[in-house]
Amino acid sequence: MISSEEDAPNHGGARGIRLSALVPVYNEAETIEEIVRRLEQISIIRQIVVVDDGSLDETPVIVKRLSDAGRVVAYFHERNYGKGAALRHAIELAEENYLVIQDADLEYDPQDFYAMARVVQETGTQVVYGSRFLDARRTGMLWTHYFGNRFLTMFFNWLYGQRLTDMETCYKLFRTDLLKQLRIVNDRFDMDPELTAKIVRTGHKIYEVPVSYVGRPYLAGKKIRPADAISAIKTLWNYRHWQPENSPTKQG
């Protein structure tokens, strides 16, 4: 990884922002090294944390090699717990003031982190989502996932009085101490509605910027199931009156 600001001349207009990239991974031997390489090209990413969630293929071997080379900070689960559980451990290892979430399947472009970081500089926000449904390039999204994503976002907006366009996006940027205070409870994909609900319930505004998306076929490794949509609805409903024990400082 880049070791100093002097080594990173291209900041994409987001100089001064330093990010930890959190990469939960499960059975992604074909893509994990490539996504790490792409993240290393983003000058504002100063730390890459990879949590292998009990992969059954060669992913742990590759992650161990990347860790031994000093390219990533790694954590290994003995068995598969879920994306939420992997992120929970990744957050504990994040060292920079801000963090972003990156899947290992190459569907998102890390270059979009520059635009997300610029929003932090311009607004002082602590939360930025990269939306696939704003004015951005989007290809290959399965129609079931498209309508599922749209429905869940509309349900969230109705329940929480918001105007988001993409609650289920992978690309989320948070101030690190905020996310550490909120804590992820859910182990699987319902961590997305959990986090979004908690952010709103603590009074934080979620900014959105368009990000590109190139989906891959279900048979290529999609892990989200129809049952996850039902779980997301239940999670949103359960957190509608949630109150933090020690509320983080709200944004003005």
Structure write-up:
The protein is α/β, with parallel strands linked by helices and 252 residues long. The chain has one domain (5-238): Spore Coat Polysaccharide Biosynthesis Protein SpsA, Chain A (Alpha-Beta Complex), CATH 3.90.550.10. Helix content is 36%, strand content 17%. The chain is built from eight helices and nine strands. It has helices at 32-40, 59-68, 83-93, 113-123, 143-160, 176-182, 191-201, 226-238, and strands spanning 19-25, 45-53, 73-77, 98-101, 127-131, 138-139, 172-175, 207-210, 213-214. The protein has a seven-stranded mixed beta sheet with strand order 3-2-1-4-7-5-8, sandwiched between helices. It has a two-stranded parallel ribbon with strand order 6-9. Helix 5 runs parallel beside helix 8 and helix 7 packs parallel to helix 8 (226-238). The longest helix has 18 residues, at 143-160. It is globular and about 45 Å long. Mean pLDDT is 88; it is low at 1-9 and 248-252.
